[in-house]
Amino acid sequence: MLKKIFFLAVFVISIHVVNAQDQKINVVVIGAHPDDCDIDAGGTAIQFAQMGHRVLFISTTNGDAGHFNKGGEVLAKIRKAEAEEAGKRFGVTYKVLDNHDGLLVPDLTVRLQLIRLIREWKADVVIGPRPYDYHPDHRNTAIAIQDAAFLVIVPNIAPETPALKKNPIFLYTEDRFMKPNPFSPDIVVDISTVFDQKIYAMSAHQSQFFEWLPWLAGQLENVPKSESDRIQWLAESRKGNIPAKMRTGLIKWYGEKGNQANYAEAFEICEYGSYPNDEEIKRIFPMLRKN
Description:
alpha/beta, Rossmann fold
Protein backbone atom coordinates (compact mmCIF):
# COMPACT_ATOMS: atom_id res chain seq x y z
CA MET A 1 0.00 0.00 0.00
CA LEU A 2 2.78 2.41 0.94
CA LYS A 3 4.58 1.56 -2.29
CA LYS A 4 1.44 2.42 -4.31
CA ILE A 5 1.08 5.73 -2.47
CA PHE A 6 4.75 6.51 -3.12
CA PHE A 7 4.49 5.86 -6.87
CA LEU A 8 1.23 7.85 -7.05
CA ALA A 9 2.94 10.78 -5.33
CA VAL A 10 5.89 10.61 -7.75
CA PHE A 11 3.45 10.51 -10.67
CA VAL A 12 1.56 13.57 -9.42
CA ILE A 13 4.82 15.47 -8.84
CA SER A 14 6.03 14.52 -12.33
CA ILE A 15 2.80 15.78 -13.90
CA HIS A 16 3.17 19.03 -11.94
CA VAL A 17 6.77 19.51 -13.15
CA VAL A 18 5.81 18.85 -16.77
CA ASN A 19 2.89 21.27 -16.53
CA ALA A 20 5.15 23.90 -14.94
CA GLN A 21 7.69 23.51 -17.73
CA ASP A 22 4.98 23.61 -20.41
CA GLN A 23 3.31 26.69 -18.90
CA LYS A 24 3.23 29.70 -21.19
CA ILE A 25 5.73 32.41 -20.30
CA ASN A 26 4.46 35.98 -20.60
CA VAL A 27 7.22 38.36 -21.62
CA VAL A 28 7.11 42.17 -21.78
CA VAL A 29 9.95 44.03 -23.49
CA ILE A 30 9.95 47.80 -23.11
CA GLY A 31 11.94 50.32 -25.12
CA ALA A 32 11.85 54.08 -25.52
CA HIS A 33 11.30 54.13 -29.29
CA PRO A 34 9.85 51.89 -31.98
CA ASP A 35 12.85 49.62 -32.84
CA ASP A 36 14.53 49.67 -29.37
CA CYS A 37 12.96 46.38 -28.26
CA ASP A 38 13.92 44.86 -31.61
CA ILE A 39 17.59 45.72 -31.22
CA ASP A 40 17.92 44.79 -27.56
CA ALA A 41 15.88 41.58 -27.31
CA GLY A 42 14.59 40.71 -30.78
CA GLY A 43 16.41 37.40 -31.13
CA THR A 44 15.34 36.25 -27.68
CA ALA A 45 11.76 37.30 -28.44
CA ILE A 46 11.75 35.22 -31.64
CA GLN A 47 12.80 32.15 -29.67
CA PHE A 48 10.09 32.73 -27.06
CA ALA A 49 7.50 33.09 -29.82
CA GLN A 50 8.72 30.00 -31.67
CA MET A 51 8.27 28.00 -28.47
CA GLY A 52 4.68 29.17 -28.12
CA HIS A 53 5.16 31.82 -25.44
CA ARG A 54 3.60 35.31 -25.42
CA VAL A 55 5.73 38.40 -26.05
CA LEU A 56 4.68 42.05 -25.92
CA PHE A 57 6.91 44.84 -27.23
CA ILE A 58 6.14 48.32 -25.84
CA SER A 59 7.58 51.59 -27.12
CA THR A 60 7.07 54.34 -24.54
CA THR A 61 7.20 57.05 -27.22
CA ASN A 62 5.73 57.27 -30.70
CA GLY A 63 9.01 58.18 -32.41
CA ASP A 64 7.64 61.46 -33.80
CA ALA A 65 10.95 63.38 -33.56
CA GLY A 66 13.53 60.95 -34.94
CA HIS A 67 13.96 62.02 -38.56
CA PHE A 68 15.62 64.72 -40.62
CA ASN A 69 12.75 65.75 -42.93
CA LYS A 70 9.62 64.25 -41.34
CA GLY A 71 8.08 64.78 -37.95
CA GLY A 72 5.01 65.09 -35.80
CA GLU A 73 1.86 63.10 -36.50
CA VAL A 74 3.01 62.09 -39.98
CA LEU A 75 6.18 60.47 -38.66
CA ALA A 76 4.35 58.93 -35.68
CA LYS A 77 1.97 57.13 -38.06
CA ILE A 78 4.90 55.85 -40.11
CA ARG A 79 6.74 54.58 -37.04
CA LYS A 80 3.63 52.86 -35.67
CA ALA A 81 2.96 51.09 -38.98
CA GLU A 82 6.59 49.98 -39.17
CA ALA A 83 6.43 48.66 -35.60
CA GLU A 84 3.28 46.68 -36.35
CA GLU A 85 4.95 45.10 -39.38
CA ALA A 86 8.06 44.32 -37.34
CA GLY A 87 5.85 42.69 -34.72
CA LYS A 88 4.41 40.35 -37.33
CA ARG A 89 7.92 39.38 -38.45
CA PHE A 90 9.08 38.79 -34.87
CA GLY A 91 5.89 36.93 -33.96
CA VAL A 92 5.07 39.34 -31.12
CA THR A 93 2.46 41.97 -30.24
CA TYR A 94 3.84 45.50 -30.69
CA LYS A 95 2.29 48.45 -28.83
CA VAL A 96 3.40 52.05 -29.39
CA LEU A 97 2.38 54.53 -26.69
CA ASP A 98 1.39 58.05 -27.73
CA ASN A 99 4.06 59.98 -25.81
CA HIS A 100 6.26 62.42 -27.71
CA ASP A 101 9.74 61.33 -28.78
CA GLY A 102 12.52 63.25 -27.06
CA LEU A 103 10.18 64.66 -24.40
CA LEU A 104 9.52 61.61 -22.24
CA VAL A 105 9.59 62.10 -18.47
CA PRO A 106 9.05 59.31 -15.92
CA ASP A 107 5.90 60.86 -14.48
CA LEU A 108 2.80 59.23 -12.97
CA THR A 109 1.11 59.01 -16.37
CA VAL A 110 3.88 56.91 -17.91
CA ARG A 111 4.29 54.85 -14.74
CA LEU A 112 0.59 53.97 -14.71
CA GLN A 113 0.66 53.16 -18.43
CA LEU A 114 3.38 50.60 -17.80
CA ILE A 115 1.79 49.20 -14.63
CA ARG A 116 -1.47 48.54 -16.48
CA LEU A 117 0.19 46.96 -19.51
CA ILE A 118 2.45 44.72 -17.41
CA ARG A 119 -0.57 43.57 -15.43
CA GLU A 120 -2.77 43.04 -18.48
CA TRP A 121 -0.07 40.87 -20.06
CA LYS A 122 0.27 38.95 -16.76
CA ALA A 123 4.03 39.32 -17.13
CA ASP A 124 6.43 36.73 -15.78
CA VAL A 125 9.42 38.74 -16.95
CA VAL A 126 9.84 42.41 -17.88
CA ILE A 127 12.85 43.52 -19.92
CA GLY A 128 14.00 47.09 -20.48
CA PRO A 129 17.00 49.45 -20.57
CA ARG A 130 19.28 50.47 -17.73
CA PRO A 131 19.05 54.10 -16.53
CA TYR A 132 22.53 54.91 -17.90
CA ASP A 133 22.38 56.18 -21.46
CA TYR A 134 23.08 59.13 -23.72
CA HIS A 135 19.39 59.52 -24.64
CA PRO A 136 16.97 60.97 -22.04
CA ASP A 137 14.11 58.84 -23.39
CA HIS A 138 16.13 55.68 -22.72
CA ARG A 139 17.04 56.82 -19.21
CA ASN A 140 13.51 57.92 -18.38
CA THR A 141 11.99 54.73 -19.75
CA ALA A 142 14.31 52.79 -17.42
CA ILE A 143 13.26 54.93 -14.45
CA ALA A 144 9.57 54.47 -15.27
CA ILE A 145 10.05 50.69 -15.42
CA GLN A 146 11.88 50.68 -12.09
CA ASP A 147 9.16 52.81 -10.51
CA ALA A 148 6.52 50.35 -11.76
CA ALA A 149 8.40 47.25 -10.65
CA PHE A 150 7.07 46.87 -7.11
CA LEU A 151 3.76 48.63 -7.72
CA VAL A 152 2.50 46.04 -10.21
CA ILE A 153 1.63 43.86 -7.18
CA VAL A 154 0.03 46.64 -5.09
CA PRO A 155 -3.78 46.34 -5.48
CA ASN A 156 -4.58 49.95 -4.50
CA ILE A 157 -2.43 51.36 -7.31
CA ALA A 158 -4.39 51.50 -10.62
CA PRO A 159 -7.10 49.33 -9.00
CA GLU A 160 -9.12 49.13 -12.22
CA THR A 161 -6.48 46.70 -13.53
CA PRO A 162 -6.08 43.67 -11.23
CA ALA A 163 -2.68 43.54 -9.57
CA LEU A 164 -0.30 40.68 -10.24
CA LYS A 165 -0.03 38.02 -7.54
CA LYS A 166 3.75 37.83 -7.86
CA ASN A 167 6.29 40.42 -8.83
CA PRO A 168 7.81 39.57 -12.24
CA ILE A 169 11.51 39.16 -12.84
CA PHE A 170 12.79 42.51 -14.11
CA LEU A 171 15.83 42.49 -16.40
CA TYR A 172 18.01 45.14 -18.02
CA THR A 173 19.13 44.91 -21.64
CA GLU A 174 22.78 45.11 -22.63
CA ASP A 175 24.60 48.38 -23.11
CA ARG A 176 28.25 49.42 -23.29
CA PHE A 177 28.14 52.34 -20.83
CA MET A 178 30.73 51.99 -18.07
CA LYS A 179 29.72 54.69 -15.55
CA PRO A 180 28.51 54.57 -12.86
CA ASN A 181 28.39 50.79 -13.25
CA PRO A 182 29.11 48.53 -16.24
CA PHE A 183 26.49 46.11 -17.49
CA SER A 184 26.56 42.62 -15.94
CA PRO A 185 25.53 39.78 -18.32
CA ASP A 186 23.67 37.56 -15.84
CA ILE A 187 21.70 35.79 -18.58
CA VAL A 188 23.07 35.32 -22.09
CA VAL A 189 20.98 33.90 -24.93
CA ASP A 190 22.49 32.48 -28.12
CA ILE A 191 20.51 34.01 -31.01
CA SER A 192 22.71 32.69 -33.85
CA THR A 193 19.95 30.53 -35.36
CA VAL A 194 17.46 33.43 -35.49
CA PHE A 195 19.83 36.29 -36.30
CA ASP A 196 18.67 36.49 -39.93
CA GLN A 197 15.03 36.64 -38.86
CA LYS A 198 15.87 39.34 -36.33
CA ILE A 199 17.51 41.45 -39.03
CA TYR A 200 14.59 40.89 -41.42
CA ALA A 201 12.14 41.98 -38.70
CA MET A 202 14.24 45.02 -37.81
CA SER A 203 14.30 46.05 -41.48
CA ALA A 204 10.58 46.81 -41.21
CA HIS A 205 11.65 50.05 -39.45
CA GLN A 206 12.67 51.60 -42.75
CA SER A 207 12.48 55.22 -41.63
CA GLN A 208 14.85 54.40 -38.77
CA PHE A 209 17.49 52.02 -40.15
CA PHE A 210 17.61 53.23 -43.75
CA GLU A 211 16.92 56.95 -43.30
CA TRP A 212 17.36 58.51 -39.83
CA LEU A 213 20.31 56.54 -38.42
CA PRO A 214 22.34 56.64 -41.67
CA TRP A 215 21.67 60.39 -41.89
CA LEU A 216 22.96 60.88 -38.36
CA ALA A 217 26.10 58.93 -39.27
CA GLY A 218 26.61 60.81 -42.53
CA GLN A 219 26.06 57.61 -44.52
CA LEU A 220 22.70 58.22 -46.14
CA GLU A 221 24.21 58.01 -49.62
CA ASN A 222 25.55 54.54 -48.80
CA VAL A 223 22.14 52.99 -48.14
CA PRO A 224 21.36 50.35 -50.81
CA LYS A 225 18.22 50.69 -52.92
CA SER A 226 16.87 47.14 -53.08
CA GLU A 227 15.26 45.40 -50.10
CA SER A 228 17.60 42.42 -50.21
CA ASP A 229 20.69 44.62 -50.34
CA ARG A 230 19.34 46.74 -47.49
CA ILE A 231 18.78 43.68 -45.30
CA GLN A 232 22.32 42.49 -46.00
CA TRP A 233 23.68 45.98 -45.30
CA LEU A 234 21.77 46.11 -42.00
CA ALA A 235 23.07 42.66 -41.04
CA GLU A 236 26.66 43.74 -41.70
CA SER A 237 26.19 46.79 -39.49
CA ARG A 238 25.00 44.57 -36.61
CA LYS A 239 27.88 42.12 -36.69
CA GLY A 240 30.59 42.30 -34.06
CA ASN A 241 32.62 40.33 -31.57
CA ILE A 242 30.86 38.95 -28.50
CA PRO A 243 32.48 40.55 -25.40
CA ALA A 244 34.47 38.22 -23.16
CA LYS A 245 32.02 38.43 -20.25
CA MET A 246 29.13 37.53 -22.53
CA ARG A 247 31.13 34.62 -23.95
CA THR A 248 31.67 33.39 -20.39
CA GLY A 249 27.93 33.64 -19.85
CA LEU A 250 27.22 31.66 -23.01
CA ILE A 251 29.49 28.88 -21.78
CA LYS A 252 27.74 28.92 -18.40
CA TRP A 253 24.31 28.44 -19.96
CA TYR A 254 25.18 26.39 -23.06
CA GLY A 255 28.33 24.54 -22.11
CA GLU A 256 30.90 24.17 -24.87
CA LYS A 257 28.21 25.08 -27.41
CA GLY A 258 28.57 28.60 -26.09
CA ASN A 259 31.94 28.84 -27.84
CA GLN A 260 30.20 28.31 -31.19
CA ALA A 261 27.69 31.16 -30.83
CA ASN A 262 28.11 34.01 -33.30
CA TYR A 263 25.39 36.29 -31.97
CA ALA A 264 23.96 36.75 -28.49
CA GLU A 265 21.72 38.96 -26.37
CA ALA A 266 22.40 39.51 -22.68
CA PHE A 267 20.34 40.62 -19.70
CA GLU A 268 21.16 41.86 -16.22
CA ILE A 269 18.93 41.06 -13.24
CA CYS A 270 17.28 44.12 -11.70
CA GLU A 271 17.02 43.87 -7.92
CA TYR A 272 13.64 45.63 -7.88
CA GLY A 273 11.77 42.54 -9.12
CA SER A 274 11.76 38.89 -8.11
CA TYR A 275 15.34 37.66 -7.87
CA PRO A 276 15.70 34.33 -9.67
CA ASN A 277 18.18 31.52 -9.04
CA ASP A 278 19.63 29.54 -11.95
CA GLU A 279 16.77 27.03 -11.98
CA GLU A 280 14.20 29.80 -12.11
CA ILE A 281 16.12 31.45 -14.94
CA LYS A 282 15.97 28.20 -16.89
CA ARG A 283 12.23 28.05 -16.32
CA ILE A 284 11.69 31.64 -17.47
CA PHE A 285 14.13 31.21 -20.40
CA PRO A 286 13.15 27.76 -21.69
CA MET A 287 15.59 28.01 -24.60
CA LEU A 288 18.33 27.51 -22.00
CA ARG A 289 16.77 24.21 -20.85
CA LYS A 290 17.28 22.70 -24.28
CA ASN A 291 21.05 22.55 -23.81
